[in-house]
Amino acid sequence: MTSTRPRMGDDTIRPTPSARRAARDLARGAASSSTAGRPAPRKRGAPGRAGTIGWLLVAPALFFYAAFVLWPLIQGVQFSFYDWNGIGASTWVGFANYLTVFTDPDLLGAIRNAFVLIAFFTVIPVIAGLVLATLIRSIRAGFFSSFSQTVLFLPQIIPLAAAGIAWSWMYAQTGAVNQILGWVGLGGLARPWLGDYQTALPAVGLIGSWTLTGLCTVLLLTGIGKIDTSLYEAARLDGAGWWREFFTITIPGLRQELAVLITITIIAALSSFDIIYTTTLGGPGRATLVPGISIYRIGFTQSEVGLASAFGIVLMILVLVVVLPIQRLSKVGDK
After folding, report:
1. Within 66-172, where are the H helices?
2. pLDDT (tens digit, 9 = 90+) per residue, 6-29?
3. Helices H / strands E in the chain, number of each
4. Backbone angles phi, psi at 92, to 5 degrees
5. How far apart are CA 104 and CA 244, in angstroms?
6. CA–CA separation, 55 vs 49, rounded Å?
7. CB 94 within 8 Å of CB 81
8. pLDDT in tens, 30-75
C-alpha cells in the first residue's frame, strides 16, 4: 500500500510569474527613485568654441596694440637704418645712425643726464614713500591718515606739463623758492635755479621727486596693510624697536611693491620729457638735455628721422637692460 504523504520538498511555495513581474517593477522603481535626486551630468562645451570666444574678446585690444605699438616699433627699427628727412627719398646707411648715437658727445650727455635723474625719480621717492607710509601706518585709521594720503597723492593727478609750468614760476628769480629762502635768512642762496648750469638738473629732478612721492607712498601703504600684524606683535614681544621692525618685517614684506615702484620710476626717469620740455627745454645749454628732448629735436627740428629712430631704439634697449634684472631679482627673492 503506497503512502499518500507528500515529501518534504513538495511543500515549498514557488512564486507565480505575476509575483516575479511585480518584484522586478518594484526594483526598477527603487533604482529610479535613488537616482532622481542626483544632478544631471553637466555637458562641457567644445574647447574650440571657448577658445574662439576668448580670441574675439581679446581681438580689439590686440588690434590697437599692434596698430599703435608693434607697427610703429617695426617702422622705427626700419627707419633707423636709413638717412631720411621724413619727406624725400631715403638712403640706406646701415648701422651708421647707431654709431652716431654712441659717439656723439651731446647724445651721450643726454643719456648720462637721464641716469642722473634716476636718483631723483627713483631713490628719493621710494625712500620718502617708505618712511611716510610707515609713519601713516603708525597713526592707524582716522581723518589725518586719509587726509595725508589724499594730499600726498594730489601731485600724481596733476598733469606733468602743468606741474612743470608751476614749478618754473616758483624757481624763478622772484619765485616762491627764493622768497622762502629770504624769509629764513638764506637769501644768499637765491638764484635762478633753472637758469644755472649747476642747479638746473637737480631742480628739475626735484620736480620729479615731488610728483612721484605720493604714488610711492600710497602703493607702499597698501602693501604694508597686507602684512600680517602678528609679525609686528611677535617682534615687539622679542623687544624689537622701530628700526628692527622696519628692516626685518616691513621691507621684506614689500618686495613686490618695491620692484613695481622701482620699475615705474626708472622708466619715468629714462623717458622723461614733459617736465623738461615745459621748464628748461634741455637748457641752459645742454645741462638738462635728456633722450626724450634729443629725439624730439633730432626728428622734428633737424629732420633726421633715421638718427632719431636709432636713438629711440637705443633708449628702449637701455630701459629693458635696467628694468629686466630688477624684475628677475624680485621673482628670485619670492622663490
Report:
1. 71-79, 96-103, 105-118, 124-139, 143-157, 160-170
2. 444 444 455 555 555 655 665 565
3. 17, 2
4. -70, 125
5. 49
6. 10
7. yes
8. 555 554 555 555 555 555 677 788 888 999 999 999 999 999 999 9
